[in-house]
Recover the amino acids of this structure.
């Protein structure tokens, strides 16, 4: 399951359980709706600052077959709009940060353990220097 929230210039993507392709389809539709028509399928924002993303993987168990690739394609299609990305999860997801760094080449990306959530949220509120 994927829950999408937009809080100002921060998009919070919470993944729980085993994520499926259908979960990604629903998340993309929810994000389009929550951004109020500012975005297309590729989420190119017009007259809007770069966004910050919080990927909450604290309760993520994994991806169903093919869903991880869907996630990668989604991220690649939207890489230019992201300024900062924070991943919150346990140690088993730390290696996924390397994949995100490869996708979001212009973004600042940090990994945080669940106990560091407040620090991650503060970091996302900062602007790129």
């Amino acid at each position: 399951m994927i829950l999408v929230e937009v809080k100002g210039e921060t998009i919070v993507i919470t993944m729980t359980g085993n994520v499926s392709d259908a979960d990604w389809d629903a998340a993309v539709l929810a994000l389009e709706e929550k951004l109020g028509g500012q975005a297309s399928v590729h989420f190119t924002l017009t007259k809007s600052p770069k966004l910050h993303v919080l990927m909450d993987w604290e309760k993520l168990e994994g991806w169903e077959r093919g869903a991880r690739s869907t996630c990668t394609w989604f991220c690649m299609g939207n890489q230019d709009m992201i300024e900062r990305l924070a991943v919150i999860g346990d140690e088993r997801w730390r290696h996924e940060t390397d994949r995100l760094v490869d996708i979001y080449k212009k973004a600042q990306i940090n990994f945080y353990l669940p106990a560091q959530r407040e620090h991650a949220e503060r970091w996302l509120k900062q602007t790129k220097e």
User: Anything to note?
Assistant: Strands lie at 2-7, 10-19, 51-63, 82-88, 108-112. The chain is about 35% helix and 30% strand.
